[in-house]
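From the shared-data thread, chain only:
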Amino acid sequence: KKNSERLSNHLPDIKAIDYNHPVFVGYYPELRMPNGIEAPARPEGIFARNADILYLEEIQNYERRIHDGIDYGFFSAYNYTKYNLKGEEDYTGVLGNILEGNYDSINREFYGAFFRNLISLFGHIVDPVHKYGVPASVLEHPETQLRDPLFYRIAKRVLSIFYHYKSHLKPYSHDDLYLPGVTVEDVTFDKLVTYFDNFDFEINNALTFAKAEDGSDISYVARQYRLNHKPFFYHLKVKSENEVDSVVRVFIGPKYNAYGREYSLDERKQYYVLLDIFNYKLSAV
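Structure, as tokens:
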């Protein structure tokens, strides 16, 4: 979705984070922690280095093991159980647990916690060995990490592993997608017009009172601009030879990249967003 937003503003795709190059994305969050300390800034041009409990080579090894498992066609659990990635079962959830290194990971000792390690490595990049007592950055707090542009470069690298796994799955056959006797004859979309609109929301939970009842009669509302759109319609002309129950899924995505070159279908598929899904009973014509 982030890349789609950038394309709508004629900006190129986000590049995945690279260990071997300096981080050219500086960031000053302008936030203050609850204890009054300002969230640390990140200047441009800093290289990722080993942290006090985290080594760069170790993170690279975790990533290589995950890639190797996908290429070999199996993951290994704690008890040497093998998850066959070449079968019919979808192990996307298993891969997600491995990348996050959470409690449900099948083998955290071997596969590590790749996503969390990247967040820690780049989140504390200005003071990797805690020499100066720099607090955790906004990148290390889940509630603020989306503010940091570097988060999306980290996410791009993590998502590339999911795409690598998906590329090894058996593709859908014609019979999997074909609905006998049903033909989509035409698809038309109204022009989608977006604009920024005022949005009001309560921020009472952000206030502190000596007693809870002191805030019962007070309501604080914040206003910010948010992206909105005018009503639009899309029309599907479908011909059916039989009366049949169907499921309609509508996806929307870009056709061209930021430089005007048309995406191939393989390139384009990662940008599609599910716009609508509904059940519909088709009648015979």
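The chain has three domains: 2-166, 174-189+231-282, 194-229.
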